[in-house]
Amino acid sequence: MENLPVLTYKLTTHLSTDVEKFRAIYTWVSTTIENDYASYLKTHKKRKKYADNQEALRDWNNSFTPKVFENLLKHKKTACTGYAYLIRELANLADINCKILDGYGRTATLILTKNSIPNHSWNAVELDNKWYLCDATWSAERILITEKGPKFQAAFFDGYFLAEPELFAKNHYPLETKWTLMDTPPSFEQFLLGPVIYKEAFSFSV
């Protein structure tokens, strides 16, 4: 996996459209890379440190991401930052415009408050001159609650691939609200007070 241009070529060369190419990249990442809980805890600690300084958070994220990526290449394990970074790199190598988005992820096991720090990363991708949202981390696994704490279990789920913005915004809140891709984004308070959305909801249209 260390030669990303070769990997991108193998994943996409037989496909004709950007949508097909990006789906191949997304599916490969979500079904091949293992979620690393230790890396998640380390990332969470740093995000907490820079919770009140978004510029410092971006600087740390930009410097830390290559280290995460190096570990990802060696061990095929990472946390959400690594998933988002790999998706972006492979997409860009396929000449597909893709960005990393940082913000807040909210589930039944990720309860947030107005003082919570950013805890998640995902992607925005431009296909046929339109932007879409996706989350390879949450497509790759499910969280099991055990006596020893949370445990990640591989379980590919396609619902977070090019999800509808109105539904995606129920459990994803980007630091830059324009990346909700909504004409009228919810406030952070509205996001926190909204219902908890389980992944099965993403199998259906809103």
Defining key terms:
206 residues; C8orf32 fold; alpha+beta; two-stranded parallel ribbon; 8 helices; single chain
Query: What is the highest CATH level, the class?
Result: Alpha Beta
- Radius of gyration, in Å, reads 16 Å
Number of strands: 8
- Main sheet attributes: strand count, strand direction, barrel closure: 4 strands, antiparallel
Extract low-pLDDT stretches: none
H-E string: HHEHHEHEEEHEEHEH
- Structural class given helices, strands, pairing? alpha+beta
CATH architecture: Roll
Percent of residues in beta strands: 15-25%
Distance, first to last CA: 37 Å
- Write out the strand line-up for the largest beta sheet, numbering strands in chain order: 5-4-3-8
Number of domains: 1
What global shape is seen? globular
Mean pLDDT: 83
User: Share of helix among residues?
Assistant: 40-55%
What is the overall number of helices? Answer: 8
How are the elements arranged and paired?
Blueprint: H1 4-12, H2 18-32, E1 34-35, H3 37-49, H4 54-75, E2 77-78, H5 80-93, E3 98-105, E4 120-127, E5 130-134, H6 136-140, E6 141-146, E7 149-154, H7 165-168, E8 172-174, H8 188-193
Parallel strand pairs: 1-2
Antiparallel strand pairs: 3-4, 3-8, 4-5, 6-7
